[in-house]
Amino acid sequence: MHTAFLMGNEAIALGALAAGVNLVCGYPGTPSTEVLETVAKNRPEGVYVEWSVNEKTAMEMAAGASYSGARVLVTMKQMGLNVAADPLMCLEYIGVKGGVVVLVADDPGPISSQTEQDTRHFAAFSKVPCFDPSSAAEAYAMAQEAFAFSEQHGTPVFLRPTTRVSHGYAALEVKDPEEYEQHSPSGFEKDPGRWVIFPRLSFANHRKIEERNEDLSGLLCESPFNRMETGEDVPAPRKGLAAGGISYTYALEAREQLGGIPLLKVGVPFPFPEKLAVNFLRDLDEVLCLEELDPVIERNLIYICGKYGLKTHILGKQTGHMPRSGENTRDLVTDAVASFLGAPRKTETLPPPPPLPVRPPVLCAGCPHRASFYAVKQAMKGRKTIFCGDIGCYTLGNAKPLEMVDTCLCMGAGLGIAQAVNHLEPDRSCFAFVGDSTFFASALPGVVNAVYNQASFTLVVLDNSTTAMTGHQPHPGTGRTVMGQVVDKVSIENVLRGIGLTFVETVDPLKLTAAVDAVQRADAAPGVKAIIFRSPCIALSRPTGRAAVNPGKCIGCRKCIREIGCPALSFAEGKAVIDPGQCTGCTLCAQICPADAISGGEHHA
């Protein structure tokens, strides 16, 4: 054993390695991404790791590996669980042989997601047990316990950290590599009666699952992850707290300030530890529930009170005592507990902090997506259009002055939206933007659907040769894998032509005239067309040249600032100014300057 200062996601990864994981797969998505990357950096020989093309494929990989007796970790964020739902729901009915842990990182806030969906609901819906860590140290322990639990009970298991657990740091004791458990897959054994899902098998297994989860509810009352912490004697009404996840950690800090009020920790919210909760509630008049996202603990306690005839009053999100959305914080929880107890909060008198500057997210200086959006905008001036966006850095194309994202729903949805609008409004020029990683993850069915159903729209693939928003992970078009293997790139052009597209052009978006021309020709062509704007992410290919403004030539028109919104551009003393610390020399501003006042830069095609 040794002490390490680890991010929660790193702790989960090392916990999986300590448990003898054999295969790790997933799709990048904040706040989950670092788990797989940490495994890839620290994996012993024989551990296979991959970024799958999407979460559904990763879950199907997990099923196959488990059938062979391997221990498997699948990683994703809460939005990815929607994509993985089909195989996961069926896998729960089939059952597992090797342990399967499904790491789903929820994102209260949301900080970097479309929704605040709560995986604890999905656990109950899919009947899959759920471990909910409250700290990096507990995440490390749960990651190990979950594999053994999965194998013992024949079920996949959720491990559900939230953002502050995934990205928080702590010093904790972890095993040395020589202490890792060695798990050898036994191999696949043919057994159609077990592995082939038919209605009769599902019916029989459904009954077994319900019986198992009822037994697990009792068993989990003895788990160290679910426990009661006794409190000091308090006058009536007798009060207590119930908490899970990071909110439990905040509750501990509140107890330090406000006194040792009884506390129920729910570390495995499904199956819910019913008998433990009954014992906790029996002697209390009021309980305040502390949890992020939905009132899962709160609703379970209300149900238990009704089932057992307990008079305990349950407070929380549904009663307005806790916020119904967003993150909890230490101060928010402490204030809520103080109000609940009617106790003054012990606080230090500090001067108010200065207001924070407003920093909206923007495309990086020199980002090729800015040039791509600008080219389409210029090409389609005066036309009736719709620009359907997608999930990634390029979602930021919605900001002024570009304003080039009219819709954004979920990964790959822009293709379906553009097709539908085209069928209803044939006179509207419809565009669907998608990134290169997202193209492989979720765009292909949409393209096939469009060709088959005779749609007419322009697909714009923004190919910056990486999965940029989540930290520059490889994908099938990059020619490398997360394990460092050099492989043949999957050609986006060949895939599109294979589907049946006849208009497929690849253009450098930083060559503005050629880019505008390609867009105009694509829009005029019939059927489904594709433009691939290919230019590397500026974080991967940073040129050495820098642009500069000649003050003598600058006419102060602000066109460079007004039209592209590059953060390297500003205006001072009646002239445009370029910050050399931010400029990447992409030359886009020079190409649009009407006075030829900008020079320098180095095109990085």
Topology:
Elements: E1 2-7, H1 8-18, E2 23-26, H2 34-42, E3 48-51, H3 55-67, E4 72-77, H4 78-94, E5 100-105, H5 119-126, E6 130-131, H6 136-153, E7 157-159, H7 163-166, E8 169-174, H8 192-195, H9 199-219, E9 226-229, E10 239-243, H10 246-258, E11 263-266, H11 274-281, E12 286-290, H12 296-308, E13 313-315, H13 330-341, H14 368-379, E14 385-388, H15 413-424, E15 429-435, H16 436-452, E16 457-463, H17 492-499, E17 503-507, H18 512-524, E18 528-534, E19 547-549, H19 559-564, E20 569-572, E21 575-578, H20 588-592, E22 598-600
Parallel strand pairs: 2-3, 2-4, 4-5, 5-7, 6-7, 10-11, 10-12, 12-13, 14-15, 15-16, 16-18, 17-18
Antiparallel strand pairs: 1-8, 9-11, 19-22, 20-21
Structural overview:
This protein is α/β, with parallel strands linked by helices and 605 residues long. The protein folds into four domains: 2-197, 3-Layer(aba) Sandwich (Rossmann fold), CATH 3.40.50.970; 223-341, Rossmann fold; 368-534, 3-Layer(aba) Sandwich (Rossmann fold); 547-600, Alpha-Beta Plaits (2-Layer Sandwich). It has 20 helices and 22 strands. It is globular and about 80 Å long.
Strand % is 15-25%
Q: What is the CATH top level name of the largest domain?
A: Alpha Beta
**Strand line-up of the largest beta sheet:** 3-2-4-5-7-6
CATH topology of the largest domain: Rossmann fold
* Helix proportion range: 25-40%
Distance between the termini: 49 Å
Number of domains: 4
CATH superfamily of the largest domain: Thiamin diphosphate (ThDP)-binding fold, Pyr/PP domains
Major sheet summary line: 6 strands, parallel
The name of the CATH architecture of the largest domain is: 3-Layer(aba) Sandwich
Unreliable stretches (pLDDT < 50, length at least 5) are none
Rough shape?
A: globular
Q: How many E strands?
A: 22
Number of helices: 20
Could you tell me the mean pLDDT? 93
